[in-house]
Amino acid sequence: MPKAIVIGSGIAGLASALRIKKLGYEVDVYEKNPYAGGKLHAIEKDGFRFDLGPSLFTMPHYVDELFELHGREPDAFFRYSRKETICNYFWEDGSRFSAKADKDSFVRDAAAAFGEDVTNLESYLEGNRRKYDLTAGIFLEKSLHKASTYLSPDTLKAIARLGILDLNTSLHKVNASRFRNPKLVQLFNRYATYNGSSPYKTPGIMSLIPHLEMHFGTFIPEGGMHRISQSLYELACDIGVRFHFEKEVKQILTQEGRAVGIVTNEGSHSADIVISNMDIYPTYKKLLPKLPHPKKTLAQERSSSALIFYWGIKGEFEELDLHNIFFSEDYPGEFKAIFDDKSLAEDPTVYVNITSKDVPDDAPEGSENWFVMINAPGNYGQDWQALKRDARRHILQKLEKCLGKDIETRIVTEHVLDPIGIEDNTSSYRGALYGAASNSKFAAFLRHPNFSSRIENLYFCGGSVHPGGGIPLCLLSARIVSDLVPQPFLKKEHA
Ligand code: FAD
């Protein structure tokens, strides 16, 4: 039986292991942490449970298909429910907007709240759908780095209709040219942060992201986000994938232009194929130091990172739901601080995620588990102690102003994660949440391919390579890898 080694058990590493096992490989996963899941991890503190990383779950069918691939009922491992409210939005002037997942309700409510025209909103959302339909099959589901992708009829169709993709303008310009109300522009600009980018730099094609939320919906897993990685880990154990925790990979072994194994802190292990789920930057710098590096790819601007306060809060807030956003009064200034000044704005946009709204066991009765996050620059050696101290004060000011309630005195427990912590936990270069930023129209093409063009049988999955960061794209990277690896048993069957 051919042997595969997967380096790292992030969501893409888990999904790759599951897919490669199905192809008939013996699979060993080497993970530096004592747990599986990478960024999809959780902690418990003083009776509160907090998801440490992702909080927004879209396109759950990419998780379901991994269970189905192995003939299992997804429900037996992993259940989730669809949210009716996408997000509650708050501004300092007292305005509030509750965005419904149902498209018609959203259009009706947004037209009324922001004084916009229903037809204009509908045609904007329809344009977003067209962008997604035209590009998903090419840019997300296949390797961008194989000639066959470019020769397909879908690609030729997309090239013929490049104009509607808004590649030459920014997301902000697309939104500002469409809507008069700056609050609605800000609401749609926010989607740039879903891949850690700035709405003032990321291309207009990113307006396809709200389509994903409205069309595919947003979901909350039973037991919280951590169930995504845990249920996949359970399935992987069930089907015989072997996990080796606290085994940091130090080197990828190559011989005559082929990957032949790895070296961990305990010795070397051979394999027929190696798949790295480690961030592509340290994969080259640490595991393949002698190999020529793809300089342009590794020099790409990194996506934003985050500063997160996990607060156990005494009391319940009726006006809040699972996802809540408290907008900055100076949105351009916030992104300038993050991407140009590598600092934090004095008036940041604050995201509050409360899973105990849907998963009551996540907090003691009469309390809520708040995941309070602001977007942050990567770690460039800033004074994070000072930045965290100031950010905590600014966040509390904003929340107290928008909610008209004292928050600080209700905090009964606290845990903090900053870009240094994110980098330490997962080796994500500079603590980036999504690998490289998508702050230019070329970013997608500069992302590293899912295979090595120099070393045979070496593959890459995860948020720092094609097609990008976030749970759905990481799961797609695993699917692309499983299409690329040698398929010995399949070949035999067809011989
Ligand atoms: P990672 O999760 O980065 O895992 C890589 C694994 O490799 C880790 O387990 C690490 O320990 C291991 N590893 C690294 N180096 C080695 C080595 N040398 N040897 C062995 N093991 C190694 N996405 C969403 O879809 N929705 C969200 O709401 C969302 N919010 C986020 C909020 C935060 C705070 C963070 C941090 C991320 C968020 N993301 C979100 C992004 C999402 O978490 C990531 O894109 C995704 O989880 C990355 O998965 P991955 O497979 O690339 O690997």
From TrEMBL:
<feature type="domain" description="Amine oxidase">
    <location>
        <begin position="11"/>
        <end position="485"/>
    </location>
</feature>
<keyword id="KW-0560">Oxidoreductase</keyword>
<comment type="pathway">
    <text>Carotenoid biosynthesis.</text>
</comment>
<dbReference type="InterPro" id="IPR036188">
    <property type="entry name" value="FAD/NAD-bd_sf"/>
</dbReference>
<comment type="similarity">
    <text>Belongs to the carotenoid/retinoid oxidoreductase family.</text>
</comment>
<dbReference type="InterPro" id="IPR002937">
    <property type="entry name" value="Amino_oxidase"/>
</dbReference>
<keyword id="KW-0125">Carotenoid biosynthesis</keyword>
<protein>
    <submittedName>
        <fullName>Phytoene desaturase</fullName>
    </submittedName>
</protein>
<dbReference type="InterPro" id="IPR054840">
    <property type="entry name" value="hydcarot_desat_CrtD"/>
</dbReference>
<dbReference type="Pfam" id="PF01593">
    <property type="entry name" value="Amino_oxidase"/>
</dbReference>
<dbReference type="InterPro" id="IPR014105">
    <property type="entry name" value="Carotenoid/retinoid_OxRdtase"/>
</dbReference>
